[in-house]
Amino acid sequence: MFFLRKKFVLTSILMGIACAGWAETGSFILDKVSIVGLEGLQGDVVKSRIGFKRGSYITPEDTNQIINNLYGTGFFNSVDLYRKGSNLFVNVKERPIIADFSFSGNKKIKKEDLEKVFTDAGVYVGNIYNPNTMFLIKQSLLSQYSMMGLYGAKIDENIRKLPNNRININLTIKEGKPATIGDINFVGNKNFDDSDLKSGLAFQTPSIWNLWGFLAQFDSYSPNGMEKSVQDVTNYYLDRGFLDFKVTSKQASMSKDREHSYITLGIQEGEVYKVGDISLDGKFIIPKSEVESLIQLKEGEIFSKKKLVDTVESIRTLLGSKGYAFATVNPIPDVDKENRVVSFKFVVDAGKKVYVNRVNFFGNNVTNDYVFRRQLQYYEQSTYDKEAIDKSQRRLDQLPYVGSADMQLVPVEGSDDLVDINYNIKERNANSISGSLGYSDLYGFMIGGRLNMPNVFGTGNTFNINAQLSIPFQQLDISYIDPFFTTSGISQSVSAYVNRSNFAKTDAIAAYQLDTLGARLMYGLPISTFSNVSWGLTFANNTLKQSEGYKSSIVEWFIQQQGGRNVFNEPAITGGWSYNNSNKYMFPTQGGSFNLNGSINIPGISNINSYKVEVGGTYNIAVPNTDLSALSIRAGVQYGGGYGKTKELPFYENFYGGGWGSVRGFLQGSLGPRDINLVDPNNPQPGNSIGGNLNIYNNWDLLFPVPFIKDSSNMRIGAFLDVGNTYITYDLNGVLYPTPPSPTSPSLGNLKYSVGVEFRWASPMGPLAVSFAQPFNVQKGDVTQVFQFSLGQNF
C-alpha cells in the first residue's frame, strides 16, 4: 500500500495589473468574461471556476485570486489575463487528456496494487494529466522499492502526443537487482569474533564460500532486514548473559554500482550477569510447585533471555491448557549492577477461566462444517484449552483440501469468560480428473489416469480410480475411504485392484510374470492427535509364470517347493500404527512421521504361510535462519519370512532396494542377490535382482528452497547421504547367483553408500525428482546409475 501525499505546486505567473498583460490599469466593474485557448473544456466550466460574475467589482488583487483559482483546478499549464475596458480575457493552455495509460516491468509489486495507486491519484484514461502528480507517484514508488532493497530501481515515463490535446503514457519500470550483502562488520565486540556474530544474523553474505547466504531470508539489504539483524545480535548477547548490551549504531553503505551493500553495527557489550533469586507471586490457580517446575532460569547460572522467554511462554501455555486463555506472566527484574546479578519475580495472573462459546467456520464453500469440526480436539461449551486448540490447528492444516485455516479468538460481547473461535478456511480445489506421464528407472515411462475426489460432495470422504500403464507393469485400483466411518472416529477403506507384471521388461528385476487380483477392507482409529492404528483383511490371488524367453532359477525352484502349484490364494490379516506430527504435507520443516506395519497370511486358508513387518520413519529439523529449509532424516527396516509349511517369504513378496527411497546411485530395484537364467541348461547366465526378505535404508537429505526463484514453495534443491542394502537371510545356495550367494545379514562392509545432490518439484504432472549421485562400495554385478530421474512417483 502506498500512501501518497497529494500536493499542488502552484506556478503563479505574476501578471500584476502593472504588467504588460493589462491593456488598462485600475479597478473596474466586470461586464464580460471571454475564454481564449480552450480545446476540450467547455467555457462555462472555466467561468464557473473564476469566482466572479458579471457586475462584480474587480481589483488588481482579485486578478491574482482568479489566476490561483484556475491553476487550482489542475486543468491548465498556463493562465494569462488581460483587460479591455470592462471585459476580462482569460488566455489558457489546457493540460492534455490521458487517452491511454500503461505500465510494465513491475514484478515485486502486484499489478492490481499499482493500478489502485494510479487510479486513486487521478492517473487514468479520460482524466487530465497532471505532471506534478505523476512526479510524486514515481518518487513514492522509488521509495517503496528502496524499502524492498531495490536501490537501483528506475521509472522511465514515455509520453506520446495525439491530436486534440490527447496523450498516451507508458511507464517502464526497471526494478533492478537487490543490493546483496557484500560484508557485515562489527565495532566494539571483544568477547565474540565477527564470524560468531554473523552466523546468527538475518543478514547473510552470499558467495561461493557461503552458499548458505543464497538461501537466507535476508541475502540483500532492506530496512526490515536491518532491524531483524539488530534484534538477532541483541538476542545473541542477551542469551549469553550480557544484560546491558546495546547496539550503539547501525550503518549501511552502497557500492558505486548499487549492487552490494555493506553493513556496520556498532555495539557495546557490557558485563555478564548471573541469575540471582527467583520468586513467584500472584494468582496461580494451579499448584505453585507445578509452576516452579517450568522455570528454566536457575540461581547462579548465566542469564539467558531465551530461557526467560521460554519460561513465560511455558507458564502461559500451562494456564491456557487449564482454561485461562488471557493469563499474564510478568517477570519483574531486580538488577544488581555492582555484583552483576539479576533476580526475577514472576508475577502470575491467571485471570478468569474462559469457555468456548461457539466455533465458526468461514470461507468453506464446498466442504461441510462437520468435516472440520470432527478434526477439533475440543468442543463448544468446553473449557478453553490452548494445547487442544493448537493440535486442532495442525490437524486442519494437514487436510489435503485445505489451503489454509486461520484461527481467530474473539471475546463474546458482554461476557468476560466466553470466547468464540473463528476459522477462516481457504479451500483447495481438491477434486480432479487427471492424466499423467511418469518415469522411473525401474518401470521406464508410464502413462496413467486418475479420478481423485478427496472430498466427495463436501463430506471429507475420498474416492479414487487409479490406472497405471507401462511396458512391464499395468494396474487398476479403485478405492473409497470414509475417515469417520463411526462417530468415534474409526475410518473405513474399501478397495479392489488388478495388477499385471512382466519383470523381464525391466533391467533390474529377475524375469517372471505375476498377475494379481485383490481386495482390501481396512479400518483405522486415531489414538491420539497425530497417531492412528489400522487393521483389516486383504485378499490376493497370485498367478506366477515364467517370462517368455526366460527360465528363472528362482521361479523354477519356488514352484517346485509348492508341489508344482503356480496359482496362490493369499488372504491375510494386516495391522499397523502410524504417527505424523509434521508441520506440512509437502516439504515439512518440523516434526516427523513413524510407521509400523505388519501382515500375516491366514493359516489353513492361505496357500502360502508368510508374514511381513515394516518399520520406518522420517524426522525433520528446521535449518536456523531460514524459513523453508530442513534436514530430513529417513530410515527403515523391512523383513519377511515364512511359517508352518512355508519356510521362506515368497520371492515375489520381496523388498527391493536401490534408487529413490533407498540408495541413489544404484539402479532402482537392483540391490540384493540375483537369479540365474536357465533357458540354456548348458550355459546358465546371471539374471537380475530378486530383492530380499530383509531391506534396510537410511537417507539424510538437506533441502533448501531454490535460489533466485521468486516462489519456490513447491520445489527444493539439496544434498544427500544414502545408506542401505537388500539381503536374503536364508540359504538358497545353488539357486541364486553368485555361488556362494550374497551376504545374508548387514554389516558396515556390505552396506551400499552414496552421496550427491538432488532437485525435487511438486509439479502439475506429479512429483518430479532428479539426483546426481556418487555410489560407494560398488561390487562386481552392481548396476550403478549416477543420474536418476523420477516423475509421478512419491519422493
Automatic annotation (TrEMBL):
Keywords: Cell outer membrane, Membrane, Repeat, Signal, Transmembrane, Transmembrane beta strand. This is Outer membrane protein assembly factor BamA. GO terms for cellular component: Bam protein complex. GO terms for biological process: Gram-negative-bacterium-type cell outer membrane assembly; protein insertion into membrane. It comes from the Bacteria. Pfam families: Omp85 (PF01103), POTRA (PF07244). Part of the Bam complex. The keyword DNA damage does not apply. NCBIfam families: OM_YaeT. It comes from Allofrancisella frigidaquae. It is found in: Cell outer membrane; Membrane. InterPro entries: Bac_surfAg_D15 (IPR000184), BamA/TamA_POTRA (IPR010827), D15-like (IPR039910), OM_assembly_BamA (IPR023707), POTRA (IPR034746). Belongs to the BamA family. Residues 1-23 form the signal peptide. PANTHER family: OUTER MEMBRANE PROTEIN ASSEMBLY FACTOR BAMA, SORTING AND ASSEMBLY MACHINERY SAMM50 PROTEIN FAMILY MEMBER. Part of the outer membrane protein assembly complex, which is involved in assembly and insertion of beta-barrel proteins into the outer membrane. Residues 28-95, 273-351, 354-428 form the POTRA domain.
